[in-house]
Design goal:
single chain, 126 residues
Length: 126
């Protein structure tokens, strides 16, 4: 059960990172020059928070990898697609189409199938 919580925490922090990066870019005026644009963007609070969220997500992911099989844990990362879709629709008013919803339902079904299996304890890598 702890492993599932670590997986979900990692996924949610990744989703938060995506949302924060998008929010940081939201209403950003076009700029000339790549270096000027990069310098301007990396110091925006939402962008910085997005990178921090990704960093924390990676730390939780390391905990996941130390506790379970990669083939069990990694498919659950696909839940991030579902949550990003929902939050993007709610916050950014992204388009919802039937084909996208069907795709997300299929992702959820796949994650449920994977979650129903019993993973083995990972073997140490030499």
């Amino acid at each position: 059960m702890k492993t599932i919580l670590f997986i979900l925490t990692s996924v949610f922090l990744g989703v938060a990172g995506q949302m924060l990066l998008k929010m940081g870019l939201y209403k950003t005026p076009p700029m000339e020059g790549l270096s000027v644009k990069i310098l301007h963007l990396i110091f925006k609070p939402y962008i910085l928070l997005g990178f921090i969220s990704y960093g924390l997500s990676s730390i939780f992911w390391l905990l996941v990898l130390s506790r379970t099989e990669l083939s069990y844990a990694y498919p659950m990362v696909a839940l991030g697609y579902v949550f990003v879709f929902i939050f993007s629709w709610l916050y950014f008013k992204d388009q919802v189409t039937l084909i996208r919803v069907i795709g997300l339902v299929l992702i959820c079904i796949g994650v449920v199938f994977v979650a129903m299996t019993q993973p083995n304890t990972p073997k140490p890598i030499n």
